[in-house]
Amino acid sequence: MTNSKLFLSLLLAGTIGSVSAQSLKDAKEAMTAEQYDKAKDMLQRLVEKKAKDGENYFYLGKIHLINDKVDSAAYVFNQGLTNAPKEQLNNVGLGIVDLMNGNQSAAETKFSTAVAGLGKKDYLPLLYIGEGYIDAPKPDYTKAIEYLTQAKAKNEKDPSILVALGDAYAGLGESSQAFVNYRDAEYMDQSLLAPKIGQALISRRAQAYDVVLEQLTALTQEHPDYAPLYRELAETYYLSSLKAPEDQYREINQKGVENYKKYLSLTGDNSVEAKTRYADFLVYSGNYEELKTVAQELADAPGVDAKVYRYLGYIAYNQDKDYAKAAEYMNTLFSKVQPERLIPRDYLYAGLSNVSAGDETKGFELLKQAIEKQTEEDNLETEIAETAFAKYQDGEVETAVKIFRLPASDPESDYYFDANYFIGLGQYSKGSKIVSPAEGEEVTPELGATKIAAGKPILDEAVKAFGVVVGTTKDDVKKKYLINSLYYKGLSELALDGVMYDPENAKGLFVDSFTQLLEAVKTVQSEDPNLNSYITDANNYLGYFHYLKGDNAKAKTYFQETIKIDPANEFAGQFVDQL
After folding, report:
1. pLDDT tens sequence across 485-500
2. Running DSSP on this structure, what letter comes out for residue 13?
3. Could you give the CA distance from residue 330 to residue 325 in angstroms, rounded to a whole number?
4. Which of 115, 145, 346, 380 lies deepest, with the highest CB count within 10 Å?
């Protein structure tokens, strides 16, 4: 047996067992109900029994596309053309494969071939080309409408054309035109649920999630066994959770998972492909605990899609916090999966993983690509910043600092000042520990020089980051961060100045920051409970510096300012008495 015949036999091998329905009509009905594994089984048997019927190959290829197996789809479409050269639907299928692979010009060539000799009433190629443009990774709704309008001109009685037109107009944001087409399709066939669902989803694009949930829930009460309704509910709950108050997010998001499980139970599809689609939903909805369970099942499944590395990578990053392993999984995903099949979130987690694992150059490049590739539904700049905030709050300060460096390097970022502030805090904390003497160490200028040299790159970054915040002209940033930034910038400079090791040779690196802090507290409102502590520290450090330089009168002035706020301050009190 040749390799090609062997491959085809594997692709077309049916599940062992009996299947009562064997007609193309039954297979298409199963596809409409999203019972894809059942439909695939029927179509594989039809191809085996009717090898010269090209239409069977086309619908089998469509199943492979739904399962994200683009290469398998292309192989089946080509076999369809070989066995039934006159069936142009398989040229349509190959054109859709080109769209999936990002090759629009090749797709248009195949589409032109497919429609060149159509009969007067032959409209299906036009319909499926239109749907192909709608479902493409980069949808072209205008092209879709062009082909669907031609299909409608050939057959005004097929409601699926109107449903597709509704989808295309909805994609363009033309809600009224979308509604008209969905309504007309519903009038044409009252039993169809697709136009009813389409009308509900118009409101979803407008983020009127409560309306959509009400409409879809009502439809499930009328049609409790129609699986696609529950998938749409799942996706709507997920989108709704993103706009919900923080204390309601998890509850609403969990409803999405529950509805997706209901969808799977109704389709009866327990295939690897169905679990892979479920895993994709869990990725988008951020349900990493559930994803971990599904990913482990998929990892052991024979012939599983290489996308399993996506799930394993996300789990390693979010659940296990094993950043080196996460980077390994994500790098493997990128090496095994065609670029067209990667999603913006893959670049996000590949970037976060590599940054967190230590390869900041590669990680930042991937994060920049994630932002460039994001869709309207993504908000990856926010996710990057919020990931850094979460790492910081969880005590993973070094990892947080690494991630913050991306928004901190972009003055146009909404998180530019936040990121610089937290980089400053993180690096001050790390650098000051390096510079401080260990217990039992003799404090000498020589020890100070060694420790300051070790801590200098870190403290320099802190000073630079705080300097960005201090230099702002934005009132909201000043109110939020200015006082703290001046204080910790001053402390970072104090550590670099070596005052504790060699006070006589202090240069006063910190003087400007603490002087600005004392001026800022007069004009900038701050509700920080540590404000008085900042003021007394600033006065004490400034007083001590001027004392070291022999300006006793100025030194005494600063210490007296401390006593006004904190009469019991021992450090200032001793100097006031002495001076």
Report:
1. 999 999 999 999 999 9
2. P
3. 9
4. 346
